[in-house]
Design goal:
The chain is an alpha+beta fold. It folds into two domains: 167 residues, Creatinase/prolidase N-terminal domain (Creatine Amidinohydrolase, Chain A, domain 1), CATH 3.40.350.10; 266 residues, Alpha-Beta Complex (Creatine Amidinohydrolase). It is 37% helix and 18% strand. The protein is built from 13 helices and 21 strands. Bound molecules: glycine and manganese (II) ion (2 copies). One manganese (II) ion binds next to loops. Its cofactor is Mn(2+). It catalyses: Release of any N-terminal amino acid, including proline, that is linked to proline, even from a dipeptide or tripeptide. Pfam families: AMP_N, Peptidase_M24. GO terms for molecular function: aminopeptidase activity.
Length: 440
C-alpha cells in the first residue's frame, strides 16, 4: 500500500485551512544532482514537496492558492517529450499532473516565468521556506521583483514572507494511519535484514560484504534504497558514529555495530544492532551491552504521552551514568556526574529523533522553550549507545575499542508506544541463539 491521492488532497486542504487569508504557498521539487560526469545521483523527491503532492518528478513547482476560483492547487512540471522520455523515462506532463496527481491546474515548467508572477500578484503573504535552495530562492525573488516593477500600473506585491515549515512540519510530525502502516512495513523489512546479517556474519568477511546482505534484503522486499548510508563498523570502527567506509575485515572476537534501515515509498526506518562477529559476546562486551540494553528498555518504557520528549533521554543518561560508575569507567557521585555531563565521553549523542519521510524527521522538539509533550501518532527512534575510544587511556585496556548502540523505531500510541522494529532480537541470549542456529 502506498499513500492514496485522497490523502495528499486532505493534507493540502489541511494546510490551506491554516494559512492566513489572501496568501499563497510555493514549494519546489528537489533538484537533480550530478554524481560525476553524465551520471546523476538517483533522484529523491523533496520530502515537503512529496508530502503535499505525491509528485515524483524533478523540475516541478507546486503552488497552493486558497480560494482561487480556477483551482487552488497549481502544478508546474516538465512537458511530455517523446525523445527525452525514450532516454530518461516517463513524464506525467501537465495533463498527467491533473489526471493522475489531482492538480486543479497545471502548466509547463518552461512557462513559469510568465505565469507565476500573476498568481502571486495581489496575495499579501507568501508561505515559502527561504534558504533551502539558493537557486530557487533567487528565481522567486526575480518573480517578486517583476511584480514590484509594475506597482505604478496598480500591481500589488506581497508584503510578507512566512516560513511554510512552521505549519507543514507540525503536520508531518503526526503520522496518519497510512503513514504508520508504511513505516511499519519499512521497519519490518529492515528488521528482517538485521536478522539476515546476524545469520550471515563470519570472521574474515569485510564490512561491505555484510552491508551487501542488508541491501539485498531491502531491495528484494521492494525498498529500493537505504534511508541513509549504512554504517557497518567492526571492532573500534563501531566507535566512529558516522562510519560509512565499511571497508575493513571483521575480526573474530570483535563486535560489529550496524546502523542500517531501508526507505519504503519515501518513509524511513532506522535500526541499529550490535552483535558478536563470532556469535558469542565476551565478558566486557556483555557488561557494556547489558547496560545499553537496560537503558534502552527503560527509555522505551518512558516513551508515552505522560512524558515530554526529553524524558527517555534523561532516563538513559541516569542508567548509563550509574552503570558506568558500577563498572569503574566513571568515578564519582552519579548526580554530580550527570550534572557535569561526564557520560558524554562515552555517550555523545541524543537518545533519539523524530522519524518519517526524513530519517531525522521534521517537527519541533521544544515549544515555547519547553520540551514538547509526546502525543499519539509521533514516531521516533530510541537509540542509546556507549563508545569506548580505542585510545582512551583513562580506562582499563580491556574496555577500549568497544562501540555499542541499540536503536529501535517507536510509534507513540494512546496506551504507551508500539515498537515497530520488534522483529529483530536484541537480548543477548536471543542474538546468540539466532547466530548459533545459523552456524549449526
Ligand atoms: N542513522 C542515523 C541515526 O541513527 O540517527
Ligand atoms: Mn540509526
Ligand atoms: Mn537514528
Amino acid at each position: 500500500m502506498t499513500i492514496r491521492l485522497q490523502e495528499f488532497q486532505r493534507r493540502r486542504r489541511e494546510l490551506m485551512e491554516q494559512m492566513e487569508p489572501n496568501s499563497i504557498a510555493i514549494l519546489a521539487a528537489a533538484p537533480e544532482r550530478t554524481r560525476n560526469r553524465d551520471v546523476e545521483h538517483p533522484y529523491r523527491q523533496d520530502s515537503d514537496f512529496w508530502y503535499l503532492s505525491g509528485f515524483p518528478e524533478a523540475e516541478a513547482v507546486m503552488v497552493l492558492l486558497p480560494g482561487r476560483e480556477h483551482g487552488e492547487y497549481v502544478l508546474f512540471c516538465r512537458e511530455r517529450d517523446r525523445a527525452r522520455e525514450i532516454w530518461n523515462g516517463y513524464r506525467a506532463g501537465p495533463e498527467g499532473a491533473v489526471a493522475d496527481y489531482g492538480a486543479d491546474d497545471a502548466f509547463p515548467i518552461n512557462d513559469i516565468d510568465d505565469i507565476l508572477p500573476g498568481l502571486v500578484e495581489g496575495r499579501e503573504r507568501v508561505y515559502y521556506d527561504l534558504g533551502r535552495d539558493a537557486a530557487f530562492d533567487s528565481r522567486l525573488m526575480g518573480w517578486i521583483n517583476t511584480i514590484r516593477e509594475r506597482v505604478r500600473t496598480g500591481a500589488q506585491p506581497p508584503g510578507e514572507f512566512v516560513a511554510l515549515s512552521h505549519l507543514l512540519h507540525d503536520m508531518r510530525l503526526f503520522k496518519s494511519k497510512a503513514e504508520t502502516e508504511l513505516m511499519r512495513q519499512a521497519a519490518q523489512i529492515s528488521a528482517g535484514a538485521h536478522v539476515r546479517a546476524m545469520q550471515a556474519v563470519r570472521p574474515g568477511m569485510y564490512e561491505y560484504q555484510l552491508e551487501a546482505e542488508y541491501l539485498h534484503e531491502f531491495m528484494r522486499h521492494g525498498a529500493r534504497s537505504p534511508a541513509y548510508p549504512s554504517i557497518v563498523g567492526g571492532g573500534a570502527n563501531g566507535c566512529i558514529l558516522h562510519y560509512i567506509e565499511n571497508s575493513a575485515p571483521l575480526k573474530d572476537g570483535d563486535l560489529v555495530l550496524v546502523d542500517a534501515g531501508c526507505e519504503l515509498h519515501n518513509y524511513a526506518s532506522d535500526i541499529t544492532r550490535t552483535f558478536p562477529i563470532n556469535g558469542k559476546f565476551s565478558g566486557e562486551q556483555r557488561a557494556l551491552y547489558e547496560l545499553v540494553l537496560a537503558s534502552q528498555y527503560a527509555a522505551i518504557e518512558a516513551t508515552h504521552t505522560d512524558n515530554h520528549w526529553n524524558v527517555p533521554h534523561e532516563t538513559v543518561v541516569r542508567i548509563l551514568t550509574e552503570g558506568l560508575v558500577d563498572l569503574g569507567l566513571l568515578a564519582g557521585n552519579p548526580d554530580d556526574l550527570i550534572e557535569e555531563q561526564a557520560y558524554q565521553r562515552f555517550f555523545m549523542h541524543r537518545t533519539g529523533h523524530w522519524l518519517g519521510l526524513d530519517v531525522h524527521d521534521v517537527g519541533d522538539y521544544r515549544i515555547g522553550g519547553e520540551w514538547r509533550q509526546l502525543e499519539p501518532g509521533m514516531t521516533l527512534t530510541v537509540e542509546p549507545g556507549l563508545y569506548i575510544a580505542p585510545d582512551d587511556d583513562t580506562v582499563e585496556e580491556r574496555w577500549r575499542g568497544i562501540g555499542i548502540r541499540i536503536e529501535d523505531d517507536v510509534l507513540v500510541t494512546k496506551e504507551g508506544c508500539d515498537v515497530l522494529t520488534r522483529d529483530v532480537p536484541k537480548a543477548i541470549d536471543d542474538i546468540e541463539a539466532l547466530m548459533r542456529e545459523a552456524r549449526a
